[in-house]
Design a protein that fits this description.
The protein is of the alpha+beta class. 36% of the residues lie in helices and 24% in strands. The protein has helices at residues 2-71, 78-89, 156-176, 293-297; strands at residues 92-101, 104-109, 112-117, 136-145, 150-154, 182-190, 194-199, 204-208, 229-238, 241-245. The longest helix has 70 residues, at 2-71.
């Protein structure tokens, strides 16, 4: 009986140990589960943060890409981008001719070799290209190919552009120079026959010696000096030439009446400057005119 009791006690103790072990295992499992859950939450938060950061980076990249596209296509070499800009704007640049080659001359722009064909070096035919070596000229980019490193310039295009601009400016100036206009100017040069006046709008006109003043002026230099400021009136524009007058702005002097001069005996009557008013006579015809011999001899008494 005592053995059975002992066995039962032993079994109870073992069951208690198993229970304690099971409880301990459950606690370990629970702790592990809690740790795993915490780890999962941390991982989730990290993933969320990384995703948000990635979304922000993509948004920034998209904005930067859009800004870049708005600025134009990127270029691998900013120098060639500058050449492309000069080509599109038809902007002139100064270059120095380095050497003469077959068919033209060579210059360097920002270290890039540029070719100027002989036909683009001047308005006319260039016989000796060597004469241009070392000369500084204004040229315009007419070809800019980065792939083939091809840069071509033209001096003639600059000259023609300047000529067209000068003609347009001249036309605008001449449009202001209408007959009757009063303008300010400066005495530019003096001649025996008149003075050339540089008007403030850029035009030039001739002030003839007869148009300087009402009083007689022998030479313009007697009353004018180079550099004098003067006010003049335009009295004529023909074939691009402007005629000016200073006396047209002055008050004409009163004309003096001259007393009639007594004629000497035998002196012809002087020529009159002005026509006198014609006197009008009213008359009535009372008879007929006759020129016959009978009429002339009528009433004459002849002695025998």
């Amino acid at each position: 009986m005592s053995e059975v009791t002992e066995v039962m006690e032993t079994a109870a103790e073992a069951a208690e140990e198993v229970k304690e072990a099971a409880q301990a295992s459950a606690e370990v499992v629970t702790e592990a589960a809690e740790a795993a859950a915490e780890k999962a939450e941390e991982v989730k938060e990290t993933v969320t943060e990384k995703a948000e950061e990635a979304q922000e980076s993509m948004a920034d990249y998209a904005a930067e890409l859009e800004a870049s596209l708005n600025k134009g296509q990127p270029t691998s070499d900013p120098i060639w981008a500058r050449f492309e800009e000069l080509l599109n704007n038809r902007e002139a640049i100064k270059v120095t001719i380095d050497s003469a080659v077959k068919g033209g001359v060579v210059a360097f722009v920002d270290g890039i070799r540029a070719f100027i064909p002989a036909s683009k070096l001047a308005n006319g035919y260039v016989e000796n290209l060597e004469e241009y070596k070392g000369k500084e000229v204004e040229a315009m980019v007419i070809t800019a190919e980065e792939a083939g490193k091809k840069l071509v310039l033209s001096v003639r295009d600059v000259l023609r552009k300047k000529s067209a601009e000068a003609k347009a400016a001249r036309a605008a100036i001449m449009a202001e120079c209408v007959e009757g206009a009063v303008m300010e100017g400066t005495v530019d040069s003096l001649m025996d026959y008149g003075a050339f006046i540089k008007l403030d709008n850029g035009a030039s006109g001739l002030l003839h010696v007869s148009q300087i003043a009402y009083k007689r002026v022998e030479k313009p230099a007697d009353v004018l000096n180079k550099g004098d400021r003067i006010t003049v009136k335009i009295i004529g524009v023909k074939d691009g030439k402007i005629s000016l007058s200073k006396k047209a702005l002055e008050e004409a002097p009163a004309r003096r009446e001259r007393a009639p001069r007594e004629r000497k005996e035998g002196e012809d009557r002087p020529r009159r400057d002005r026509r006198e008013k014609e006197e009008v006579f009213n008359y009535k015809e009372t008879g007929k005119a006759s020129t016959s011999v009978g009429d002339l001899l009528k009433g004459l008494k002849l002695d025998n």
